[in-house]
Amino acid sequence: MGDATVTPETIRPDEARHFGMLAREWWDPKGSSAMLHRLNPVRLGFLREAIDLHWGGDIESVRPLAGKSALDVGCGAGLLCEPLARLGADVTGVDAAPENVAAAAAHAKGSGLDILYMAGEVGALDIGTFDLVTCMEVIEHVADKPAFVAALVARLAPEGLLVLSTPNRTPQSRLLLVGAAEAVGAVPHGTHHWEDFVTPDELEALLTAAGLTVTERKGIAYRPAKGLHLSDDESLNYILAARR
């Protein structure tokens, strides 16, 4: 969204339908996924630093993932998969909504990028392991979070890197990411269910139970004058890197 530890209930059909209905607008920076377009550069900034630190690469290289495989789980229409491919990775994207996978494949073809997209439950797909596994703004939408984390870890190569981002469950996120964001149309109504948000401590505990160690964690904060940016403030959203 791996192996037999993941149950079919990891994917919520209503969540898959909700995001599948947005597939046609996913690449419109002013459409229903506008917030993701603003969030993507911030996530990529964290991800690039995590890649360089993990593999000790050349920070000036434009293709730090050359020769490596990457899996993006809950890939939507490919907003992260395409930058990963441009960074040199052999990329696979998995999403619960077939509509998203179709939109992602069409956009990648139009961009001249060779990316493999697959629809379904990541734990049920025979796709092997990857040097890099990413999962951005997804875990808050799944039914069985421990099983989902286990599926992500099962897809991680022994020396691999896992990067996740998700909203924090705080009064601030309830007010801004659910109430205000949906009220002004920044995200489509029904996108977020605050009670499903995961705190950093909860996510670290899930990763630890699955055999990983968190190596870096940053908040993704918002200020009107600065927009979305990496910060020590984790009250709205956060991103982390982990390894075995």
Write the layout of secondary structure elements.
Blueprint: H1 13-20, H2 34-55, E1 69-73, H3 81-86, E2 90-95, H4 98-110, E3 116-119, E4 130-136, H5 145-154, E5 156-167, H6 171-183, H7 200-209, E6 213-223, E7 227-231, E8 237-243
Parallel strand pairs: 1-2, 1-4, 2-3, 4-5
Antiparallel strand pairs: 5-8, 6-7, 6-8
Describe the structure.
This protein is α/β, with parallel strands linked by helices. The chain has one domain (8-243): Vaccinia Virus protein VP39 (Rossmann fold), CATH 3.40.50.150. The protein is built from 7 helices and 8 strands, in the order H-H-E-H-E-H-E-E-H-E-H-H-E-E-E. An 8-stranded mixed sheet has the order 3-2-1-4-5-8-6-7. Mean pLDDT is 88; it is low at 1-8.
- List unreliable stretches of 5+ residues: 1-8
Architecture in CATH?
A: 3-Layer(aba) Sandwich
Mean pLDDT: 88
DSSP, total strands: 8
**Text of the CATH class:** Alpha Beta
CA-CA gap between termini: 21 Å
Task: Name the helix and strand elements from N-terminus to C-terminus, one letter apiece.
Answer: HHEHEHEEHEHHEEE
Binned strand content: 15-25%
